[in-house]
Specification:
alpha+beta, 17 helices
């Protein structure tokens, strides 16, 4: 049987070899000054499932699936499942037909890749979901040795493709910021899952090194502004964390190294909590995005992954009236969400000197007045990176009371602000920054 290669079908093997050489040449050591957490470490041996939970977690997850809030999420996953849902259903309930469907999908369906450009950002969600499906289903006796080999070869071929794109040797589209972080996270999870795989021109060790390097390299890490908003905004933070949080959890489980312990990432997670109004809505500034809730905090609302910030993350997750999780995160919440995590209530007001941002809020309740204001970041615009994000190159002001926005500022002239803000804000006082 022909297995997928990491290169387009119309490429010659000479071209493929040249790309492999280029990838090898561009491999870089991860600087020691980045910190020990960024130094790659593979598990010593494979164990399945292992990415997010294992046999020791199964009974607890089964019990949780019978009571709130987990039962609601479990039912949501069964009704609106993703590719890995049948495998998870088998692992938790023993549903053999579901296992058969998961096997058929792994063997018969290609790993989806966005067309026509082949962008890794949208593709990464399907890639990681395929990897998770195999991690969970791997223990099923119905998978033959040939099945395992075919599935593992497919994952490896896709991982080599991602590796090549991020090396710059293969066209693919993976801009710095949320796109590259998403792609690197999927690649990292593939490396952890196939840590014993040998039949690849690159292999798990290089995949993991590349994943960590691409997230932490200066061109990408710049997006995580010190003590400030992720350059692409809170909405993209939520979207990016569909995969980034998964990778961070999986890497900690495999090695004990917790990426969110990095001071820059710790500040980033803390800052984004304070961009929520008391009803869970994102404050409307910067890119003028709107939305309700940051569901990924549901996976960090526990002592292991939230650590001393767990009470803050639990509060952030529960600010909306009906907290929700991304479909990819529903089964993880059975293992990791802890609504009873304890600790002191975080202060409602906070200052972030590095980004000149101040949040003044009476309390975390709905009957409260709050104001956000930020000075202009003197490092922006940066023409050699991105100079177009309004929340970096202008000051800001937002005023709310009783969960209603009273005044806001996008940093543009009024006429342009009206273009950027939706109709629900057209009667809101707009103030020049």
């Amino acid at each position: 049987m022909m297995y997928p290669t990491p290169f387009p079908a119309d490429w010659s093997w000479a071209t493929a070899l040249l790309v492999a050489v280029c990838c090898a040449a561009c491999a870089q050591d991860i600087p020691a000054e980045w910190g020990e957490v960024w130094q790659p470490q593979l598990p010593k041996s494979e164990k399945h499932p292992s990415l997010f939970y294992d046999e020791a977690d199964r009974e607890r997850m089964r019990e949780r699936a019978q009571r709130e809030p987990w039962s609601r999420w479990w039912q949501d996953s069964l009704k609106h499942g993703v590719g890995s849902t049948p495998a998870v259903r088998w692992w938790l309930t023993g549903d053999e037909p579901a296992a058969g469907r998961a096997r058929e999908a792994l063997l018969s369906q290609p790993i989806w890749r966005q067309t026509p450009q082949g962008y890794l950002e949208p593709s990464s969600h399907r890639f990681s979901d395929y990897v998770i499906t195999y991690d969970v289903l791997s223990a099923w006796p119905g998978l033959t040795a040939e099945d395992h080999q075919q599935i593992r070869d497919k994952i490896a071929a896709e991982a080599d493709h991602y590796y090549g794109v991020m090396c710059g040797g293969v066209p693919g589209g993976c801009n710095f910021g949320n796109q590259r972080t998403l792609a690197a996270s999927a690649l990292g999870m593939a490396a952890l899952t196939l840590c014993e795989y040998k039949d690849s021109p690159n292999g798990p060790e290089k995949w993991l090194r590349r994943a960590l390097y691409e997230i932490r390299r200066d061109e990408n890490f710049w997006f995580f502004r010190p003590g400030g908003l992720f350059v692409e905004g809170a909405g993209y933070t939520d979207y990016m964390n569909v995969q980034f949080v998964q990778f961070a959890l999986a890497y900690e489980r495999a090695t004990g190294k917790y990426l969110f312990a990095d001071p820059r990432l710790r500040e980033w997670l803390t800052f984004v909590v304070y961009q929520l109004m008391n009803n869970g809505e994102l404050i409307p500034w910067g890119t003028c995005e709107t939305g309700i809730g940051l569901g990924f905090f549901g996976l960090l609302a526990n002592a292991r992954y939230g650590r001393d910030l767990a009470p803050l993350f639990r509060l952030a997750f529960n600010l909306p009236t009906s907290p929700s999780l991304h479909p990819y995160h529903l089964h993880l919440a059975l293992a990791h969400h802890d609504p009873e995590v304890t600790g002191p209530t975080p202060p409602a007001s906070r200052a972030f000197p590095a980004s000149q941002t101040v949040v003044l809020r009476e309390n975390w309740g709905h009957a409260a007045v709050a104001v956000w204001f930020a000075g202009k970041d003197g490092t922006w615009p940066l023409d050699y990176r991105y100079g177009t994000y309004s929340h970096g190159d202008s000051g800001h002001f937002v005023l709310t009371a009783w969960d209603e926005v009273l005044a806001t500022d996008s940093g543009y002239d009024h006429w342009k602000s009206h273009d950027y803000y939706g109709a629900e804000f057209h009667n809101v006082l707009l103030i020049d920054g």
